[in-house]
Design a protein that fits this description.
The longest helix has 15 residues. The mean pLDDT is 96. A five-stranded parallel sheet has the order 3-2-1-7-19. It is globular. By secondary structure, it is α/β, with parallel strands linked by helices. α1 runs parallel beside α9. The chain folds into three domains: 174 residues, FAD/NAD(P)-binding domain (3-Layer(bba) Sandwich), CATH 3.50.50; 124 residues, 3-Layer(bba) Sandwich (FAD/NAD(P)-binding domain); 77 residues, Enolase-like, domain 1, CATH 3.30.390.30. 25% of the residues lie in helices and 29% in strands.
């Protein structure tokens, strides 16, 4: 009987093993995770869970009983020490597991600040795992002073939760503007205004020099000489793909674990999906750090492990919740040269449409689910309405789908 082993019990790993069973695989399945809990959702960690609006059990992607019911051997709290691709072995501390096919869904880890600038002080946190959020939850008390390092979506979401709980927030972004790596200036402007209206002190174009304190953080110095008093710090400076096991096993690494169009690594019996996997897209090796990619790519890999031979074609979408604003993103804005704004004259909804020439690449929609869905369908079907039609408030957006 064939044995498929999956290392990494996050969104991708959980989706992969479920798809294997759903697709009729009747061999042995082992899912190995280094956290002590069953696979869970990560997006609510920095939002509903941190706010106390979501119980732990609701974070779980499936009830724990699901894995036993589906005859999936779920191993939690277990660290894999190495992979032997020649012998097809996965080594744990005191055990060796033989596999026929192996999938690496090892996800990613939050980047941290170096200890040399205070990154190891108590009271300095990242937002990536359940343990991270549980560790910082007690800090979120009215009147406390938080420093958030990094103006990406994680940092902004943490800022929104902190303000809702009465924490004083200063957010420092080294780049010229928040969201500079991932969004247009128009989207940055929108969220800067939103956060400032809720009392967040945003400092852009200034880097962190160091954190200060004896054993626990008590202050911060910025590169321009500014000194801040802080009670705790949240670091949101990006994530790094989980490549250590793959690299040690001799697999090709290129901006993550390099896979082909089917999700196979440089070893014919090893596959990869999710945050850790890189694939060719728009002329470069890219990783998509999203729930959508984790699910869709993992499900494609599951089928291909069973011999389907299907090409994975990503259809990117993302979201972020901040205060009462829901941002929904469709497509990838890489290479855009024009932004078209569409505003609801009767409400707060607005969407920014990314074009390269006459080609629609992506849409950022704020409290505008209708135009988000239209934009998503247009992008997925390869249709690009004229920018002037998007900008015209009289345009019947639904009609664009039929054009």
């Amino acid at each position: 009987m064939a044995h498929f082993v999956v290392i990494g019990a996050g969104q991708a790993g959980a989706s992969l093993v479920a798809k294997l069973r759903n697709s009729g695989f009747d061999g042995e399945i082992t899912l190995i995770g280094d956290e002590a809990v069953p696979p869970y959702q990560r997006p609510p960690l920095s939002k509903a869970y941190l706010l106390g609006d979501m119980a732990l059990e609701r974070l779980f992607l499936r009830p724990e009983s699901f894995y036993a019911d589906q005859n999936i051997n779920l191993r939690t709290g277990v660290a894999v020490t190495r992979i032997d691709p020649v012998k097809r072995e996965v080594h744990l501390d005191n055990e060796v597991i033989q596999y026929d096919q192996l999938a690496l869904t090892t996800g990613s880890a939050a980047r941290t600040l170096p200890a040399s600038i205070g990154g190891a002080l108590q009271g300095v946190y990242t937002v990536r795992s359940l343990a991270d959020v549980d560790a910082m939850a007690a800090e979120f008390k009215s009147g406390k002073r938080a420093l958030i390092v990094g103006g990406g979506y994680i940092g902004l979401e943490a800022a929104a939760v902190a303000r809702k709980l009465g924490v004083e927030v200063t957010l420092v972004e080294m780049a010229d503007r928040i969201l500079q790596r991932v969004a247009a200036p128009e989207t940055s402007d929108y969220f800067r205004t939103l956060h400032q209206s809720h009392g967040v002190n945003i400092i852009e174009g200034v880097g962190l020099d160091c954190l200060t304190g004896e054993t626990r953080v008590s202050g911060a110095k910025l590169v321009d000489g500014t000194e801040l008093e802080v009670d705790f710090v949240i670091v949101g400076v990006g994530i790094a793909p989980g490549i250590a096991l793959a690299e040690a096993a001799g697999l090709e690494i290129d901006n993550g674990i390099a896979v082909d169009a089917q999700g196979r690594t440089s070893n014919e019996n090893i596959w990869s999906a999710g945050d850790c996997a890189s694939f060719e897209m728009r002329g470069a090796r890219r990783r998509l750090e999203s729930v959508q990619n984790a699910i869709d790519q993992a499900e494609a890999v599951a089928e291909n492990m069973m011999g389907a031979g299907k090409t994975y074609t990503p259809k990117p979408w993302f979201w972020s919740d901040q205060y009462d604003v829901k941002l929904q993103i469709a497509g990838l804005n890489i290479g855009y040269d024009n932004i078209v704004a569409r505003r609801d004259p009767n409400g707060a909804a607005v969407s920014f449409w990314y074009y390269k020439g006459e080609t629609l690449l992506a849409v950022d929609a704020m409290n505008d689910p209708r135009n988000y869905m239209i934009g998503k369908r247009l992008i997925e079907s390869g249709k690009s309405p004229a920018p002037s039609a998007i900008a015209d408030p009289q345009t019947d957006m639904k009609a664009l789908m039929k054009a």
